[in-house]
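Async update (no meeting this week)

Hi team, since we skipped the sync, here's where things stand on the single-chain job. The sequence we agreed to prioritize is pasted below, unchanged from the tracker. I ran it this morning and attached the output directly underneath so nobody has to dig for it. Comments welcome in thread, and please keep replies under the output.
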Amino acid sequence: MLCVLNSEELASSLGKKGTESDITLYNHKKGEASLAVAVPTRYPDRLPPLLFSLYLGNEVILVIDRLDKEIGEMMVACDVMGKNGKIILENYIQPDQIKPIIKDTNLDNWPIQEGIGDSNIMREEFMEQKPVPRDGPTKISVDHSFAVKGLGTVSLGIVDQGIVKKHQEVVILPSGKKTIVRSIQMHDDDVNEAGSGSRVGLALKNVEPDDVGRGCVLTEAGNLSVADELNLNIQISKFWRDTLKDGVVIHIASGMQFVPGTVSMDGELKAGDSGNIHVKLDGQMVLDKSDAIIVNWLDSTGPRILGNATLQ
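Output:
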């Protein structure tokens, strides 16, 4: 799956518009090959669509047609999430304007291309890529759920790990409610199973859409834990402009989750610092050590993305 930032025009040239909310998905299928593209439609008004679209994308295309706060925040997000991708320059922006900004960041290794070029060739190149399998217990991150007449509740998401099979029992986290996968679709085709990296639509038995909202994880019993408090080792982005201290209300993003919490800590942390913090969440989070944990402060004077963290 691909994430396109700052160019819905490019995304629409790569596929046909599908699910549309604060994230818009574009899809293209040719034979057995397919491509799904995520675009953060409600960004920059809301930060979560940016983080969620980046989570969905195995690769990122960042189109830079200006240099401003929004472009800067997109760069910070790509950096702290450790994404792979490509920068495309438009509107006479030159590589020499970008290279000093991305120096010593994850984006320093991204190729820079001047002009979008032929989107048909780009589509074919991405469709030739095969997802890298991730073995292990079934894990599916849900991004949309809705009721479909004749099917009941349908949840859309990415198979992060393992395989999901028709008639499989899964647990919905964080609630712990169990459900059965009645059927599986990939790009409108019925399949009996789907492996990691696949985008799926799952018809689920005996649950309502509200039971499987965005941020929920479908998994096997006993696979993942749920917590309302976190002990984190945090690395502050070098681009952050504010000070992290005791009592600050932040938002923790992991997978398709975005949960507020209050920081407890000794001392203060600023740009480039690292340290340990405790976070009391206003809700529950599903924990998977393989997912990036992104720390955000919505009242920031600069980028709202504070940095990334790992579980202690």
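Quick observations from my side:
The chain has a mean pLDDT of 95.
Residues 88 and 116 are 6 Å apart (CA to CA).
Reply here if anything looks off.
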